[in-house]
Amino acid sequence: MLYLRSFLFLVLHNFTGMVIGFIAVIIQPILPYSWRWRIVTIWNRLTMVLLRICCGVRFRIVGQRHPELYPCVVMSKHQSTWETMFLQYYFGPVSTILKKELLRIPFFGWGLATLRPIAIDRRNPIQALKDVKSKGLARLKEGNNLLIFPEGTRVPLGTVGNYARSGADIACTAGVPVVPVAHNAAECWPHKHFLKYPGTVTVVIGEPILTEGRDRKQLTEDIKTWIETQISQLPPARKDGKRPWLDEANRAAEQP
Asked: pTM for the full model?
């Protein structure tokens, strides 16, 4: 049954993504950005509905947004595809820092391109850093929030990547707050896994951190500590209570 439900989700998720991607191409030269992102992110919201209906994956939010402090820089843990779908509409309008190759994906990339992302070329890291800052500041000035995954790429469950300072640097330069986000989405939607496991994803939205007078390095460390501490305290997401990654880590620790 788990395979069947995951297959049904995959089919509907891809089909609806193709439809929205096609619509995005049509409306891009016609509608203003404020309307385009609302229409395109219907797919993100629909994905949450399909996950609940097909796979039994729900979510709960701890904390709240503070729209009165927008625009802001959102810095989130990156473990799954789930958070990319959720955060793009929850903090919208938001510009996401992502790999340039994603925009070349038919339908999906077309829709993504209409959301004013910041696409970088990872083959040229020096230029990528410059683009992230200059374009990030421009997007904030336009009124968009900025979504950054400070570890740069998805990391396996139970591991901590290197938190880059670019998010804190942009926030401090622009004088906007940082909103840290922790979650356990990968327990229900593991990266590059076909199966989606029933359960409840917990998303913790931290209080906005004001950046005036803050040191970029220390701010990054504070955000890292907050996110990783929150994740370590989250309850199991999967309905069956299993946490295979944690079991493997414990077995490895017990070996002489």
From this structure: 0.89
